[in-house]
Design a protein that fits this description.
The protein starts with a helix and ends with a helix. The protein has 20 helices and no strands. The protein is mainly alpha-helical. Helix 11 runs antiparallel to helix 12. It is a multi-pass membrane protein. Belongs to the TsuA/YedE (TC 9.B.102) family. Its main location: membrane. This is Selenium metabolism membrane protein YedE/FdhT.
């Protein structure tokens, strides 16, 4: 029971969770030739939904780019998303922590939907979200990932400025309560959650075994990887929004530093696979990458969570993040329409190069250079945390020292 409590009653160290995620991500690439990603599948789902209403999207250039063949249950990317939701839900049930939660301020639902639309649009404009254009993009040695990362950081900074305004926060909702905890019938019924968690886990394992038996090995691997990612993001509370947002609000850099460490692990293993014949997935480094990153960073702060944070929080029963997810699909689908119909690709992405750092710097240079940049990121995050924690910047510290000296004199 003590081990059970450690695994399911306590959240995991972010360094451990994200390091394992980096390892699994690299192994998944080596086995399948594709990467951990979610918003591409959100976009395809948007295309399927339009198809249900009679809209023919087969000639849309963006769907020709990302592929619309099959369904979510017949694609590896589909099972990555399904697996993440299932893995997160299973651990939430096993930890007995599922509960339907509705925001006290209903305006948060509208704000979350708007933030989701902006984030979904930005992610697909940049050809990837915090996963494909960032966490798994850097280990692919695609230069566009560094552009996206910097733009996302800037976008989150401005997002924080907006959400801290009074007109965005609105008036606080005060509710009467009691100082004494009350065990209600609803809370007692939650004891069934671990049993449901075991049942769902068994059913999911059955799906994996079926795919192996049917010779659909890649789908089975995607099922396993997706569930592992879901478990890790939920137990480690992995959210790229908090990694950036916390830097601007409190100076806290634990998640930022943990992500850097996780990518270092992924970089080394991915590099080995690429050197042994795996094909790196390189995306264009273009104005669309910059603008997409800015919009994505801005949107995830308005929404309150990125794709990973949104998914595990939705499985916790937080209604807000189901709305954010719907916004993501709407934003991504609108970008797919505008890619050619509104000339977005022609204006922001056409004729821009795919920059592969291995080709530009050579294998050794790319590996050493990427690891060095990630180390710099880690050290800068650490520096920022020590000197800007809770808003006490360097200039403020200097003023305090001068004031202190003046008082002593």
């Amino acid at each position: 029971m003590k081990l059970y409590g450690k695994i399911f009653k306590e959240y995991w160290n972010p360094y451990v969770a994200i390091s394992i995620a980096g390892l699994v991500s690299a192994l998944y690439f080596g086995i399948t030739g594709t990467v951990w990603a979610v918003t591409g599948e959100f976009t395809r789902l948007g295309g399927h939904i339009l198809g249900w209403f009679g809209v023919d999207v087969s000639d849309w250039a963006y769907f020709q780019l990302v592929g619309l063949q099959g369904t979510p249950v017949s694609r590896t990317d589909g099972w990555i998303v399904i697996g993440m939701l299932a893995g997160a839900l299973i651990t939430i049930l096993l930890s007995n922590s599922f509960k339907i939660r509705v925001p006290k301020q209903k305006r948060r639902l509208v704000q979350g939907f708007i933030g989701g639309i902006i984030a979904g649009f930005g992610a697909r404009l940049a050809l990837g979200c915090n996963l494909a254009a960032f966490f798994t993009g850097v280990p692919q040695f695609s230069f566009h990932s560094w552009i996206f990362m910097a733009a996302t950081a800037i976008g989150t900074f401005f997002g924080v400025k907006v959400v801290n305004t009074k007109w965005w926060r609105g008036k606080p909702t005060l509710m009467k309560g009691t100082m004494n905890p009350v065990v209600t019938e609803h809370v007692q019924k939650r004891n069934i959650q671990p049993i449901l968690g075991v049942v769902f886990a068994c059913l999911y394992i059955g799906v994996i075994l079926y795919f192996f038996a049917a010779g659909k090995t890649l789908l089975a691997v995607a099922c396993i990887a997706g569930a592992l990612f879901g478990i890790l993001i939920e137990r480690g509370q992995i959210c790229f929004t908090s990694a950036f947002r916390d830097l601007w609000i409190s100076g806290r850099a634990v998640m930022s530093k943990a992500i850097a460490v996780g990518m270092m692990i992924s970089v080394v293993i991915t590099f080995i696979y690429i050197q042994n014949g795996s094909v790196a997935l390189i995306k264009i480094a273009a104005p669309s990458t910059v603008i997409g990153g800015l919009l994505f960073g801005f949107g995830i702060v308005l929404a309150g969570g990125c794709e990973t944070g949104m998914m595990y929080r939705a499985m916790e029963g937080q209604l807000l993040f189901w709305v954010v997810g719907a916004g993501n699909i709407v934003g991504a689908t609108f970008l797919a329409y505008g890619w050619d119909h509104l000339g977005i690709f022609h204006a922001l992405g056409e004729n821009w190069p795919k920059v592969n750092l291995i080709e530009q710097w050579g294998p050794t240079g790319a590996l050493v250079g990427t690891m060095a940049m990630l180390l710099v990121w880690f050290l800068l995050s650490n520096w920022w945390e020590k000197r800007f924690r809770y808003g006490t910047g360097i200039k403020h510290e200097k003023k305090e020292r001068i004031s202190h000296v003046t008082k002593e004199a």
